[in-house]
């Protein structure tokens, strides 16, 4: 587990992951993601990430750092904004989960699909949050 709580830490972690995996994140739109631990989700601590990942193609599943995202049901939300705006959307998604009788059952997945590398306009930024749930 790696704790990431600032933009500089995110950049360092991403460069380290690229080096260790011999993969480049710069060619992937929306291909870099972060996770928030289930424990942090349950105590409403959304400003600290516990891992970073690079999505790969389905046929590129070999290697010591390759893991498959868990299959299952996810509560999802897309919003215009970047990681710094995610706490309010985590709160909304967790309210939806509780109000509909679901239960959080794992770490969240957060991906910025469009950010400052793709568009100069903050209105274009797009981020997705997925939280695994069980009924």
TrEMBL record:
Gene3D superfamilies: Regulatory factor, effector binding domain. InterPro entries: GyrI-like (IPR029442), Reg_factor_effector_dom_sf (IPR011256). SUPFAM superfamilies: Probable bacterial effector-binding domain. Residues 52-134 form the GyrI-like small molecule binding domain. It comes from the Bacteria. It holds the Pfam family GyrI-like. This is GyrI-like domain-containing protein.
């Amino acid at each position: 587990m790696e704790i990431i709580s600032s933009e500089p830490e995110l950049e360092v972690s991403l460069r380290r992951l690229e080096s260790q995996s011999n993969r480049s994140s710069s060619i992937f739109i929306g291909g870099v993601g972060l996770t928030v631990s289930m424990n942090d989700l349950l105590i409403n601590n959304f400003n600290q990430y516990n891992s970073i990942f690079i999505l790969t193609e389905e046929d590129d599943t070999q290697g010591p750092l390759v893991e498959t995202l868990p299959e299952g049901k996810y509560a999802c939300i897309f919003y215009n904004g970047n990681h710094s705006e995610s706490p309010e959307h985590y709160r909304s998604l967790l309210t939806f989960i509780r109000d509909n009788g679901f239960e959080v059952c794992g770490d969240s997945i957060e991906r910025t699909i469009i950010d400052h590398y793709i568009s100069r306009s903050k209105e274009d930024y797009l981020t997705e949050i997925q939280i695994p749930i069980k009924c």
